[in-house]
Amino acid sequence: MIGILIVIGSLTVLFFAPDSLSRLFDTIVKEIKPVVVDTFLTSEVGIAVIASVIVGRVLERFGFTDGLIRLFVPIMKWFKINPAVIIPSAYNILGDINAAGKIAGPILVKAKATKAEQKIAVATMIQSPQSFATFVLGLIALSIFGIDSFLLILLSIFAPLIIVPFVLSNTIYRDTKKVTLEELPRFTPKTTMLNTFFSSAKEGTELLFLVIIPAVSVVFLFIGILKFAGIWDTIETSMAALLTMVSIEPDTGIVSFLVAPTLAVAQLADLAATIDPRLIVGSFVLANSGLPIYVIIGQIPAIWAETSDLCEREVIYASLIGILIRVATACILGYFLTPYLVV
Fold this sequence. Notes:
By secondary structure, the protein is an all-alpha fold. Helix content is 74%, strand content 0%. It contains 17 helices and no strands.
C-alpha cells in the first residue's frame, strides 16, 4: 500500500512540477559534494584521518592505553567505585568508542559492577573523543588560533575521567561499591610494529571511506531535503543561537552534533581569525566527545546492550547525561578558561 502511494505521489509531482525532482537532487548534491569531495577526498583532512589512526595505534602498541588505565584505576578505589568503570573511558582516549564498549562491557560484568556503575562508565566514556582523528585535527585548529592546548587537554580530556565518576556516584548513580579487581586485563596489542603500521593504515582508510564519508553523506542528504523544503534554515538558526549561548561556535557545533566531529574540527581550522576564542575552545571540547548524536542513540546502545547488564534504553539515558555534562564542560571552559589559554 505504501509503495503504491509513493508511486502515485511521484507521478503526481512529475506531472505538476516536472523539474522539482531534479532541483531536489541538485540541492542534495550541492550539500554533499563540498564536504565529501573538497574536504575529505581532495584536501589534507582525509590524509590526516588516516595518519591519526596510525599514530593512535602506534601509541597503543607502545602501552599508552595500559599506562593510562593503571594510573586512573587507583583513583576509583579512593572514590569507592568499582575500578573497572574507568576502563572504557581510558581505552577510548585513543578514539575507538565501539571497541571500548565491546571490550569494557564484559570486563565490567566480570568485575561485578552494579548497573549504576555501568551507567557511570557509559556517561564517562562520552567525555572522550570517538575518533583520534578529531583530537589531532582539533590540535591543529587550536594552534592556528594561538590557543595553548596543554591546559585545555588536561581539563577537557583527562580531568573528566576523574570528575564525572565522582559527581555521578554522589548524585544520580549512587549504587556504587569499593571492590578490588582480581586481574587487570592487558590492552597493549602483541602484534609486530610492522603489522601495527599496516593494519592501522588499513583501519584509518576504512574509517574514512566506510564510516565517516557514508555517515556524512547520509546526514547531508537529509539536510539537503530539509533545505529544499525550506525547513533547514529555521532549524539551523535555532541550534546556532543555543550553541552560541553556551560558548560553542555554531556552525561547527551543529556539524559535531549531527554529522561528524572530525569534520567539525576540520572546518574549525578554516574559520576567520576574528572568531571569539571562547567559541573555538567550546567547539573543541564538544567535538572531542562521543558525538555525533546517531552514535549516542544508535551504535553505543546496541553494543552495550549486548556486552553489559544494561538495556538499550538505560544506555541511551546514560549517554544523554554524558553529553549534557560535555556541553556544560564546553560552556564552563569556554567562558572561564579561555582568557588563560590565548597566547
